[in-house]
Amino acid sequence: MIPAAVLDEYLDDLLVAAPPPMQMHVPASAPAPAPARAAAAAIVALPPVVDAIAAPASTAGAPPPPAARPARLPASTPAPRAAIAVEPDVPLQHRRAADRSSRWLRLRCASQAYGLELLKVQEVVLPTPLLPLRGTPLAMLGVMNLRGQVVPVMDLGVHLGQLAQVASAATRIVVLEEKGETLGLLVSAVEDVVNLTDQQIEAPDATRVGRIHSDLFRGIARQSGDPVILLDASELLAPGAGTQR
């Protein structure tokens, strides 16, 4: 065994020979690592965001640059006005009359063309068997059954002073209706529907249409073909309309 005195002496030698512990010390003037320097440079290089946002507010009251101002007309130049396409030489009442139009059903009795206002035409049907009535005018042919409705039918040609209609494949019955009153008109043919302006209709007092009573027709329309005599449907529907005139 090693004596205790020898062991104590050996331990004392070890403690004396051991160097002091190393201490890390970084001088105050030592440069920072490369990543830290890059981050610091990025922070310094940032633009002054607060100043950039606040800058427009400080110039809010300043006038806009000359290029941004709207152009102004000289004081001597009047403001432009919208052009109105009005013919100065055409009276206003004539322009309004030319704009108004109505639709008419054109038909024929023999060779003469007539017109009835389409608003008062209920329908156009083929001739059907008629039930004669006693004591009626010559123009009144009888009554027909129109889907359960009894409708008197008269020969329009006879009513206007012409000969009786000759039955053919073109013969039709024009049914008029106004305020609950109905009447069928036997005609030679139904042609078409035409649009007529007020200027295309000649006034009744300026026309000469033979034996037709002035209260029965509305006027005469002159188109490319034959003149069309316009009849008043209300007069045809009036009581006693079947009396020969």
Short description:
With 245 residues, the protein is an alpha+beta fold.
Morphology: rod-shaped
Q: Residue ranges: pLDDT <50 for 5 or more in a row?
A: 38-60, 82-88
Helix content: 10-25%
Separate helix tally? 6
CATH fold name of the domain at 95-236: OB fold (Dihydrolipoamide Acetyltransferase, E2P)
Report how far apart the termini are.
171 Å
Q: What share of residues are in beta strands?
A: 25-35%
Which structural category fits the helices and strands?
A: alpha+beta
Strand elements, count: 11
Kindly report the name of the CATH homologous superfamily of the domain at 95-236: CheA-289, Domain 4
* Spatial ordering of strands, largest sheet: 8-1-2-11-10-9
**Second CATH tier, the architecture of the domain at 95-236:** Beta Barrel
**Taking all residues together, what is the mean pLDDT?**
73
Radius of gyration: 55 Å
